[in-house]
Each structure stands twice: as structure tokens, then as C-alpha cells.
Amino acid sequence: MSLGTRVRLCLKDLYQQDIVEMIERETRRYELHSIEHPDHPDFARAYEILWGAFGPQGEMEPEHAIRRFLLEDAFDPLPSGTFIRYFLLVARDRDGVLRGVRDGSVIYNPQWAPDLCTVYLSHIYMLPEARGTVLTYWLRIAPVELAVEYLLQLQQRGLVNLPLPDQPGRYFGVRLTLAAEMEYFSPDDRLSLQRILFYGRGGFDVIDPRHFPYRQPDFRDPAVIQATGNTPVPFMLLVRRLGRERQARLPLDEASATMRMLYDEFACFCTPEFLQNSLDVVQTRLAERRAKGRTDVALLPLPTGATNLHRLKPLFRYDTYRRYYPDAPGTQAYLERIRPLLADNPRWFDEQVSSLAAELAKMPHYVYGSRDKRYEVDAIPALAAETDDAATLRPAGASGRHAARSPGGAPAASEEKRR
């Protein structure tokens, strides 16, 4: 006989206004501001925070470039027709102390894709005092509001013709995509797992590196690159396609346009000659796939908790480097460090992931998403994408995303859903 039990809560029982009130209460201790000019009193500190976290690795533009981005006219398109609005967001507590910084760009090219807008989430850094709070999630979604405002401003100025200009609730008929970069997973890098879980729980997927071997540009000074060599970093590109998070395939046209928009943004600072090769590699892979009669690429789901860490297998940094980034600059030191571990124990990766799963499983959850899911903790857990080589990527016993079927019985690839 039990003297008491812990009560769990179902998200579906909350009324919409309950959710609004909960968020309001959690965010009252912070203020979120968009820095529009480098003379803003928080600019220097905000840049200092981001540079300290990303600058030494060559993953952050120098201060003069960020100042220029803020001063440039966001309504004057690039020669390619791309409109870009750079944003720098800061979160302050009640005492006016910065607790988080996020920057990125809203990118839109109506000539390439009039119904597609990419929101590039470039950098985010949380100060220790705010880590683990709702502020982290707020800084992840705040750029969506900036994107909607920017699209409306472009329409009002007569610079673009949005598909549904009178329907902001549907993003004016534009498909919004949040895009972020991240290092591939390695068991010896526990921080990479934290970041992956954060984005996995936020509805992000990875564009299959087999057909989309993405690289982050080398953001060091061009003179330094010229002297020491260009070293773009093999990263996975994460995307959250707002309103389309349950689709498991990415059309080739959308993948190509996303890549072009990102590299248009990078060209605002990076020397074009240092960008072209990385851009060409991805576009060539997509073209090869199109030539074979394929129309899309897989979106690989990220893990969300202890029960689906098998999704890390196709994202293992060691295997990904060897398969899709052969001889890429800057990868050899990592490969040489991990190679003997696998030689001594071929099951090293699996054992490490199992250990991580056991650690995560120790943390109980008392909020679940749906009673229809038989009391599952995860609201809508994703399933492994059906890639061309799914059999080799999916562990035994792991189920894949199932495709919605057309009336004729054929899989409707673009409508594959997570269960």
C-alpha cells in the first residue's frame, strides 16, 4: 500500500491562456531587446560575450563587421536579390545585467523562392546565472517575430510581393525555416549532446550529410586565412521548418535555396573565393541526386531523451568525417584521437551512448504531452528518417518514420510524419 504518489501533468489539459500566463510569469525577470545600432549601450558587452565564446575558434566575425551589419540598409538587396536583416538580441535581468545574447540574420530572396525565408541562428550564449531557464527558449524563438516584422516591412515598402500579404498568422504565406549549425556528435564531447538535445526537443532535424555535406565558413580575417590556409568547419545544418516539423523529407529546391541564402549572408564578410568551394560541394551533391531522379533529401531526427539516443549513430563525428568530409582541413587530429579507441573496442561508441542513456534515464519527468500516446513523456517523439541507406543506419529493433500513403498506396515522401 502506497502512502502517496507523485502526480504527473498533461500539457493538453492547459488552457491556451494558462500557457500565456505561465510564459509571462517566467519571463518577467528578463527584458529582451534588439540592438539596432552599434552605439547602443549594450553593444560592446554583447559583442564581448559572443567573441569570448566563439571568436577564438574562428567562428565569429570581428567587431568591425558586426558594426557594419547593424549600419547597413536592410532594405537594399544584394546584387543577387537577397534581402538580409542582421539582428543582435540581448536579454537583461531586472538589474540591467546581460544574461544572454543571440545574433543571426533573416534572409529572403523572392527571386529564388518567393515563399521561403531562412532565419539563420548564428550564435547564442547564456551567462551561467540564466542557464537552464526559460530564457534559453525565448532567445531561440524571438527571431521568428523579427522575421515576420521584416517581411511585412519589405511588403509595405513595395520591395516584395508576399504570397498572402494580409495573413500574418500564416507568415504571409512564406515558409519560415530556422537554421542553425552544430558540430557532429562525439561521445567524448558531452556538451555536444546537451546542445543536440536542446535543439532536438525544439523540433529541429539535420539535413542528411550524405547529400548535404555542410561546412561553416572560416570567419577569421582574410589575411590570416591567406597566410595559414582556409579551414571551413564540417558542421551539421539543423533546420526547424515552422509548421512542417513532422515532415521527414526536404525538397531539393528548398535545400538548394537554403544553402544559397546562407552563403549569400556569409559573403557579406567572407571573401567569395574562400566560400565558393564549400558552396559548390553541396550544390553538386544536390544536382547529382536530382540527376538520379530523386526529388528530396532526408531530414535526420535528433534525439530528445534517453529512449532515442540511437539517432546519434548517423551523426557520429568520426564516421561522418570519414564518409562525407574526406581529407577536410582540421579533421585529422580528431580522427587520429578516436581511431585507436575504436580499434581497441569496436563497440566503444555504442557503449558510450548506452552510458549516456542510463544517465539521462535517471532524471524523471512528470509532464507528458498526450494521453493518446499512452502516457509517453515525450509529446511527439520523432522516429528515424527513412534514408536511402536506412538499414545500415538504424539499429536493430528501431522503428523508422512511416510515410503517409497516397490513395494509390505509394509513399507521399514530402508528407512523412512522426508518430
Overall description:
By secondary structure, the protein is an alpha+beta fold. It has helices at 16-27, 43-54, 63-71, 135-156, 190-200, 222-228, 252-266, 272-291, 317-324, 332-344, 348-361, 390-393, and strands at residues 9-10, 30-34, 83-93, 98-108, 116-126, 175-182, 205-207, 215-216, 233-234, 236-241, 249-251, 296-301, 367-368. A nine-stranded mixed sheet has the order 2-3-4-5-6-10-7-12-11, sandwiched between helices. Strands 1-13 form a two-stranded parallel sheet. A hairpin with a 7-residue loop joins strand 4 and strand 5. Helix 7 packs antiparallel against helix 8. The longest helix is centred in the middle third of the chain and has 22 residues, at 135-156.
Overall average residue pLDDT: 87
The topology string of helices and strands comes to EHEHHEEEHEHEEHEEEHHEHHHEH
The residue ranges in which pLDDT falls below 50 over 5 or more consecutive positions are: 374-419
The proportion of strand residues reads 15-25%
Percentage of residues in helical conformation: 25-40%
What is the element layout, followed by pairings?
Elements: E1 9-10, H1 16-27, E2 30-34, H2 43-54, H3 63-71, E3 83-93, E4 98-108, E5 116-126, H4 135-156, E6 175-182, H5 190-200, E7 205-207, E8 215-216, H6 222-228, E9 233-234, E10 236-241, E11 249-251, H7 252-266, H8 272-291, E12 296-301, H9 317-324, H10 332-344, H11 348-361, E13 367-368, H12 390-393
Q: What characteristics describe this protein?
A:
disordered C terminus, 419 residues, nine-stranded mixed beta sheet, 12 helices, alpha+beta, two-stranded parallel ribbon, globular
